[in-house]
């Protein structure tokens, strides 16, 4: 009870954060500490904060529950700053919210860029039951804590469906990036990276329109199938009726004839004047 009271006082700024214990396990108010994931690991470079590392085998874990997800290249300075923020949320009482923390290293798992549309230097997402929201990379520990505690993330619009990690576009982008890395490691095109990039760009610009065309055609066919009954009822020809396309053609021809006659009448009036 005392520990929970201390936590509430710290949330409202009554007690400075520096006076709080640094280990959430010791004060026993962090629910995340009691449900350690099999894929969780300890971030040795910062301490004992519990953060889940995202890779090819477990990235779907973030599709269920509430997560704060960080994707960046570990060798980038900005990524180091963000990892420190993530650790502080995990290892201090400020992180005692029922939100899981996850980190994906883009330098070792480059394909994550395509899967999560993570093309910025630091990509931060709030995820709730598979609904992704991209957060500003200018956030700090305090603003992130308030965003999670006060549910300010609800004011941020979710990502578009075509950018969702489970969309066809994201799957295709992941395949392209994995192919890029495989070709680079196989050294098929030599050590000139621009050759690999050029070939993959050609594949991208050829295959992408085809996939979009297939998606449009599939959605159109589904719409037609759903409205089949209505069309059959309205357009079903009888033995004495004329097919619809013939009616449309005849109407179009008659309209052209009318316009032609009208033009001739105007020309004749003009000549008579």
Keywords:
273 residues, Glutaredoxin, 6-stranded mixed β-sheet, signal, redox-active center, transmembrane, membrane, TMX_domain-containing
Nutshell version of this structure?
It comes from Drosophila simulans (Fruit fly). This protein is α/β, with parallel strands linked by helices and 273 residues long. 49% of the residues lie in helices and 12% in strands.
Provide an overview of this structure:
By secondary structure, the chain is of the alpha/beta class. It folds into two domains: 2-168, Glutaredoxin (3-Layer(aba) Sandwich); 246-272. 49% of the residues lie in helices and 12% in strands. A six-stranded mixed sheet has the order 1-2-4-3-5-6, covered by helices on one side. Strand 5 and strand 6 (131-135) form a beta hairpin. The chain is elongated.
How do the helices and strands line up, and which of them pair or pack?
Elements (H helix, E strand, L loop, with lengths): L1 H10 L12 H4 L12 E3 L7 E4 L12 E7 L4 H15 L8 E6 L6 H5 L5 E7 L2 E5 L5 H9 L18 H19 L6 H34 L1 H8 L8 H29 L1
Parallel strand pairs: 2-4, 3-4
Antiparallel strand pairs: 1-2, 3-5, 5-6
Helix pairs in contact: 6-7
InterPro entries: TMX_domain-containing (IPR052454)
Protein name: GD14338
Membrane topology: Single-pass membrane protein
């Amino acid at each position: 009870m005392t520990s929970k009271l201390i936590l509430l006082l710290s949330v409202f700024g009554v007690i400075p954060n520096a006076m709080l214990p640094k280990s959430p396990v010791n004060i026993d108010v962090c629910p995340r500490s009691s449900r350690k994931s099999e894929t969780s690991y300890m971030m040795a470079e910062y301490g004992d904060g519990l953060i889940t590392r995202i890779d090819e085998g477990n990235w779907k874990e973030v599709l269920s529950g509430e997560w704060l997800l960080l994707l960046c290249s570990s060798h980038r300075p900005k990524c180091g700053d963000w990892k420190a923020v993530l650790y502080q949320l995990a290892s201090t009482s400020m992180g005692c919210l029922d939100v899981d923390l996850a980190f994906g290293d883009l330098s070792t798992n480059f394909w994550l860029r395509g899967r999560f549309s993570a093309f910025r230097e630091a990509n931060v997402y709030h995820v709730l039951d598979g609904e992704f929201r991209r957060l500003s990379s200018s956030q700090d520990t305090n603003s992130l804590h308030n965003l999670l505690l006060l549910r300010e993330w609800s004011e941020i619009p979710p990502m578009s469906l075509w950018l969702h990690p489970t969309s066809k576009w994201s799957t295709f982008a992941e395949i392209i990036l994995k192919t890029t890395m495989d070709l680079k490691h196989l050294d098929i095109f030599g050590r000139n990276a621009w050759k690999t990039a050029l070939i993959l760009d050609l594949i991208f610009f050829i295959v992408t329109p085809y996939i979009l065309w297939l998606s449009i055609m599939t959605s159109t066919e589904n719409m037609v199938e759903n409205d089949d009954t209505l069309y059959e009822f309205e357009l079903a020809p009888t033995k004495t009726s004329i097919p619809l396309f013939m009616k449309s053609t005849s109407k179009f021809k008659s309209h052209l004839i009318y316009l032609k006659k009208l033009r001739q009448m105007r020309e004749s009036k003009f000549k008579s004047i």
